[in-house]
Amino acid sequence: MTAYEPIEHDVLVIGAGGAGLRAAIEARAHGASVGLVCKSLLGKAHTVMAEGGIAAALANVDDRDDWETHFADTMRGGQYLNNSRMAELHAREAPARVRELEAWGALFDRAPDGRILQRNFGGHAYPRLAHVGDRTGLEMIRTLQDYAVYQGIDVHMECAVIELLADGERVVGAFAFDRDRGGFKVFRAKAVVLATGGIGKAFRITSNSWEYTGDGHALAYRAGAALIDMEFVQFHPTGMVWPPSVAGILVTEGVRGEGGVLRNSQGERFMFSDIPPLYRNQTADNEEEGWRYTQGDKEARRPPELLTRDHVARCIVREIKDGRGSPHGGVFLDIAWIKEKLPDAAERIKRKLPSMYHQFKELAGIDITEEPMEVGPTTHYVMGGVRVDADSQMSDVPGLFAAGECAAGLHGANRLGGNSLSDLLVFGKRAGEYAARYAQENAAGDIQRDQVADVQRVALEPLDRGVGPHGAENPYEIQQDLQEMMQEQVGIVRNEREMEGVLEGIARLRKRAGRVAVSGNRAYNPGWHTALDLRNLLAYSEAIARAALERKESRGAHARLDYPDKDETFGKLNIVIRKNPDGSLEVSREPIAAVPDELQRIIDAKK
Amino acid sequence: MQTVTFRVWRGDATSGSFQDYDCEISEGMVVLDAVHRIQAEQANDLAVRWNCKAGKCGSCSAEINGSPKLMCMTRLNQLALDKPVTIEPMQAFPVVKDLVTDVSWNFAVKKRIKQFSPRPPDAEDGTWRILQRDVDRVQEFRKCIECFLCQDVCHVLREHHMHDRFVGPRFLVHVAALEMHPLDAEHRVGELREAGGIGYCNITKCCTKVCPEHITITDNAIIPLKERVVDEFYDPLRKIFRVFQK
């Protein structure tokens, strides 16, 4: 067996974005010794890219807001597939989590009375997003990072977990390697928190970075945990489409919140032509009313551009398919038009959307205060993930917790913008607290030497195999082929035939991945890292395709050509993915827990 | 399709050299795209650190044709492509491999700076009231993405290797953000003069020039901090006060 460094912690947190940092802080506050593993440098995780804001019913801007309305909005946005207890906890606790960030040094934009300012966002009834211009994620991760480093948490930077280690049913640690030198580490921990984020790297057009290889999803699955809602992948309606090298980079929903409108090549505000029944009462039916809403008129209803992301993305796809798209295959997003309404429009755009201004200016040579942007859908977020207990965030596997994007339940069939940052804080804190408690109540388990040896052997295969003429595969090519296939065939609109093809495609790619070989040694070797990622990418891609095949209806982010309507039967169940003892993937349907009466009353009252 | 030569530094802490790669480029490409293409097609093990590819995370810092830049925000059409484009790691930090440097020193420095400490809440519900104007004043510093390009270009670190005596522009900006934070009640001027080594900065403004976030590091952060140090330690009246206080 190759040498490895043994490390012990009470609680091991895997991932150092918003959820991981918040979990680590909380576990430490409860007295646990904490290790925090991050694939990148500290402070670079995906949270840094979040733009729009943190949803919390602070009611600073509109005093009609309260946790009940936030709860009802979240459930409606998720098409009632959400775990209602998670949605309740989230709505109740988000305001306290935001105030706590301020106490740790975060500086949000202010309302005239000096309280935290809140902005409009899709699917939220009232202005609810605490924000800092359009760089809220940076403010949040830096605040958490700069607080965490003083708490006595051991941070393992540029370290990636390859496998969770088990002792019987229970998770007792993790096997990892450090990316810069390539050395192996074996973490022994009483509790493990997964906070690894999302899965966007399986798709060609994505707003996600290289890190989003679904590690937590795949690790939990292999350790025996159930995954739910994997068919629900959020395609954010507005990503950049031009130039090609920046395709997919996010254009914040905040642009529309500030009055930006979507138009097709004929200049039409096409979002007015298709407003879903669930939202008809709350949506403006004329442009004037929509504009007044974005400017804070409490009597006005929201413009249809601020409908939920799943719906806006599909409308954009329709316009493009029907030949009314922009020159580079998107539609137009126009914020420059507000100069017709406001004398200081250009200044206002630069102040409210500074990084959008910067991003288009530098990467596309476009001045968004003067001309419209071209945008199209981009893979952004996965609603599905590890099934967890709502209160404790523990998975089906004892000792294994999950929080943030890699956990599932809060968002149901579609996530509302702004609910992810609050998700990270609310459930990161809960996961940290309950993991620390678990660690107090349970002694450390035993690391199984056989499992460690197995994982090591598999990890070194791509290097041992040797690059050469004998059918060796390039890991980058396999990754690109997977991205191409998932983008085209399990994308925004799906059908059975294509997804069956994807399953065959994944089987072929898995065979090729078994022959992957890389040059060089273990020191900072991206070829090797990419080879190691393939196993996770293929595992959750299969989970997505199988879950999407099983849900024979269209709901939220999951749209099928062959089943274009909602089906009541599927509205009451989750698609559950588990690993069979023989290693194959099992799909089942399980009923969603009934919504308690007092929560149902809130939902009905807010309809 | 145009083919461009990229002259990329390959090596580790012990040795290394430039290696040329010919790479096809397309419209709108940035330097990081070219590095990725080379990595995927010609050099699988070419080490490069990156994350967001949108100028938001500050991971892909390197020196392009000798200038410290983010690879993800440097468009190829801004460079002369008729001769090789050189890409090398930041010089102020030890090389790990190829374009990746060991920047862990920065994380250690930050930990030595006194953390944020708020004044008591303004309202009974534990919240504060802050004017937007006061938020705006520090937002410039809080935009920092910790790419460390300012550290890379600072001659105190780059040429004189005074990492043990000077925190560098990044952390002077960090201290400025804390000191000018509307809620902060901590006092950091003393440590700035001693452990921070603010006196070593002689205001050549190189850091301001390379900042991808366009933070006016020298004028808005460092000079005001230097003034605070002067007020506190070199003001003759205060000096007399201090004598009497003792």
Explain what you see.
The complex is a heterodimer of chains A (607) and B (246). Chain A has 607 residues and is α/β, with parallel strands linked by helices. In chain A, 35% of the residues lie in helices and 17% in strands. In chain A, a hairpin with a 5-residue loop joins β20 and β21. In chain A, 62% of the residues are buried. With 246 residues, chain B is an alpha+beta fold. Chain B has 2 domains: 100 residues, Beta-grasp domain (Ubiquitin-like (UB roll), Roll), CATH 3.10.20; 135 residues, Fumarate Reductase Iron-sulfur Protein, Chain B, domain 2, CATH 1.10.1060.10. In chain B, a hairpin with a 4-residue loop joins β1 and β2. The radius of gyration of chain B is 21 Å and the shape is elongated. Chains A and B meet through α3, α4, α10, α13 and α15 of A and α1, α2 and α3 of B.
Record keyword descriptors for this entry.
heterodimer; A: 607 residues; five-stranded mixed β-sheet; 16 helices; 21 strands; B: 246 residues; alpha+beta; Ubiquitin-like (UB roll); Fumarate Reductase Iron-sulfur Protein, Chain B, domain 2; 36% helix
Please give the structural blueprint.
The complex is a heterodimer of chains A (607) and B (246).
Chain A: E1 4-14, H1 18-29, E2 34-37, E3 54-55, H2 67-77, H3 84-103, E4 118-119, E5 129-130, H4 136-148, E6 154-156, E7 159-167, E8 170-178, E9 184-194, H5 215-222, E10 227-228, E11 233-240, H6 254-257, E12 261-263, H7 287-294, H8 309-321, E13 331-334, H9 345-352, H10 354-364, E14 373-382, E15 385-387, E16 400-402, E17 407-408, H11 419-441, H12 449-465, H13 475-489, E18 493-494, H14 496-513, H15 526-550, E19 559-560, E20 573-579, E21 585-591, H16 597-605
Parallel strand pairs in A: 1-2, 1-9, 2-6, 9-16, 15-17, 18-19
Antiparallel strand pairs in A: 3-5, 4-5, 7-8, 8-9, 10-15, 10-20, 11-14, 12-13, 13-14, 20-21
Chain B: E1 2-11, E2 16-25, H1 31-41, E3 61-64, E4 67-70, E5 85-88, E6 95-97, E7 100-101, H2 104-112, H3 132-142, H4 149-153, H5 155-158, H6 169-179, H7 189-193, H8 206-210, H9 217-233, H10 236-245
Parallel strand pairs in B: 1-5
Antiparallel strand pairs in B: 1-2, 3-4, 3-5, 6-7
Helix pairs in contact in B: 3-6, 6-9
